[in-house]
Amino acid sequence: ATSHARDGTTTGMKRTLEGTVKTSARASRARAAHASGRAVGRTDAVLARARGATLGDVRREQIDAALRLLIDEQCTLPFVARYRKERTDGLDEGQLRAVAAAHAEWTRLESKRESAFEALTRLEIVDERLFARLREASAVETIEDLMSKYKTKTSSRADRARELGCEPLAEKILSDGAGGVEALARAYVNGNDVPDVCEALRLAKDVLAERAANETSAREAARRSTWQNGRLQCALTTNGKAAVEGKIDDKKMKKIADALRDYYEFNAPLRRVKPHQTLAILRGEAAKVLRVKIDFDVAWAMSAAMKAMVGSRRLGGGCYNVVSEAVEDGVKRLLAPSIEREAKSRLKTEAMERAIADFGANLRSLLLQPPLTPAAVVLGVDPAYRTGCKLAVVDPTGALLDTGVVHLPQFESKVKREGGGQSAAASKLQALVKQWNVKAIAIGDGVASRETESLVAIALAGFEGVGWRVVSEAGASVYSASEIAAKELPDIDVSLRGAVSIARRLQDPMAELVKIEPQSIGIGLYQHDVKEKELADALTATVESAVANVGANLNTSSQSLLSRIPGLGPSLAAKIVRHRSERGRFRERAALKTIAGVGAKTYEQIIGFLRVPDAKDALERTSVHPESYHIAKKLLKMLERDVAEVIDLTASDAGDTSMDALKRLKPKLKALRDDVKDLEARAARLKCHPLTLKDIAIELSAPGDDARGQAAEQNVLRTQALTLEDLQTGAEIKNAVVRNVVPFGCFLDLGVGRDALLHVTAMRKRTDANPNAQIDPHALYRVGQTCAVRVKSVDIARQRIAVELP
């Protein structure tokens, strides 16, 4: 070996990544090695990583086009997914996100590789074999293994052995020096720090043990053993046992211990541990309730280390036994704990990625819930015990009409009750319903929600056409104290603003929820266990994607909604709102160019997601991009005639497209979007991509329609309330509402104040799927969806309900 780590000239020197860069022939060679280090190009590297994820059988040309658009041209992902299909050949948003994630992973790898070569340059280390292995490394862990021997560390037993001059002894033992180990060791006995042969051999073993633990092949073998045969084992700590037995007063620890009862004796193959199990177990370990261990066979690593250090050589004179003992010590004492920490870190990373993905999927479903149809007056109720339930009535557009406060019957004094025994709260609710012709009541799902629902059920008895729905109030308190709420409701008490938000969430979930930072909308598991920035970034991207999917009215959308348009942002949203208030409504999309800050690139990125519903040209009401107006108009000309060949497609496209023309051509447009051959033929004549033409046909066949649809089952309102005790095994619930989708199933609101679990094993498999394939709950259910279920079991003591499909 040619590195400083293997020759004798570095004895006594502290190996470190820090140091002054020295200009020398060696440093130049290290830099040159890095310059040729990117053996695999960006596109090929991303393709290799992304293909194994969700891309499937994607071509290299598609990856290259996606990277040019997303990275080089800095286009937003929703824009590329919607308006650049002709360049990516139809990569959808999920595939593009996989490409972006793979590129980020590749960038991290290259940054790590660059740092490694810079470190070698600083240390003036030249090792061609090491350079080659760094260039070939395809994982960050591999680079870290290769560079581990050069990292700054706290003083170790091996460092002390080097300081005492015993590293050459280790080298001689490893090279099978003449005379046997005792004779070799006797030369290093000095009567002070190394008093005898045994101490000299012990110090030499420490050096060999550290070398064994740093051998790249040994670390790779340990990883293989860990993930192929390793097991994750849990046990209660002393504090955990005390919490379970009620011997401590720490309420928080007792609560955590009770929630983790399924993991007291958990023991499972590492590769089969589910993401939600990982987060629960690591939470228990952090709270000192659980002791967590990853057990794996170290024999693989010991064998790899011996092969790397000894090879096929035959060591005699006791040298082999010394090396073997040192290798065993190094693997068990140094390598195994390191690999265990690494495995836990990987488990946590993968679990957090899945948790963030679940948050994103649930948030997207929540945002894309269809608005209440038909639009109606809604009464919002923010439940509370001591301070009373806050009430707010809003008109069909969300404007505030009235407010109030009522106390739940159990908190009212007898004086407040009316002669007939009806509570004043019920009377107040009835009066508001009658006065404002309320058609729906939105109840927050927080504290006292169950009691409030019972109160509403009593108050609405006898009212026809009025019902209620429990909605998520997550983030309502954040909105109440926000600057946005202060501007919208300046004269309303902070405590009442939450009720306004709850009412609006039933009317139009997206329009209201975009006012709140997405990480404040808790719809997942272990939200506080994931990295805050990563969660915020992912959920922000989810909100932008959902808003882009629906689009925004350029003339009526709030500043909060406009700011969520991909590529637009808060500053430009404020300018648009200010322009509307000072100069009036936008008559066409092109007028947006007059606003400072809207250059050609920005206009191109954002304009397709903005609508002008009352524009003279019907195309302004659709998601058709202005750059494709000429294609849309030529297509309509072609469809106006039975024989497309007689149409002069070179004629001017001037003039507006009328809604009457779109209604007249709707049957032909619907037929075209499903006819692949016709699409290809017409696209060839129009000189555009068939996918672009298909999107245009789809949009023109339903101009101005809300992409969220009008799913009647999601607008079902309740008219009766139940309790947990009312549930009977086998009873069917026809209007259960999905509240949360998680990897192991989904939680449903049955209207009893506690969510029921539909476990993944109880979900019906799709008939066209592989019967052995794993079911993804997100593929079958979404937040806000209404479905029918049957009660499987009710555990009143633990407040748990299990349901199954009828």
Any overview of this molecule?
By secondary structure, the chain is of the alpha/beta class. The chain contains 34 helices and 15 strands. Strands 6-5-4-7-8 form a 5-stranded mixed sheet, with helices on both faces. Strands 11-12-13-15-14 form a 5-stranded mixed barrel. α1 packs antiparallel against α6 (93-122) and α2 (42-55) crosses α3 (60-72). The longest helix is centred in the middle third of the chain and has 49 residues, at 319-367. Mean pLDDT is 86; it is low at 1-24 and 643-647.
Please describe the structure with a list of short key phrases separated by commas or semicolons.
single chain; 806 residues; alpha/beta; 5-stranded mixed beta sheet; 5-stranded mixed barrel; 48% helix; disordered N terminus
Entry summary:
The chain contains 34 helices and 15 strands. It is an alpha/beta fold and 806 residues long. The strands form four sheets. It has a five-stranded mixed sheet, sandwiched between helices.
Distance from N terminus to C terminus (CA atoms, Å) equals 69 Å
Alpha-carbon Rg, integer: 34 Å
Give the rounded overall mean pLDDT: 86
Biggest sheet details: 5 strands, mixed
Shape field: globular
Instruction: Tell me the strand percentage band.
Output: 5-15%
The structural class is alpha/beta
The total strand number stands at: 15
What are the low-pLDDT stretches, counting only 5+ consecutive residues below 50?
A: 1-24, 643-647
Q: Report the helical percentage.
A: 40-55%
Order of strands, main sheet, comes to 6-5-4-7-8
Number of helices: 34
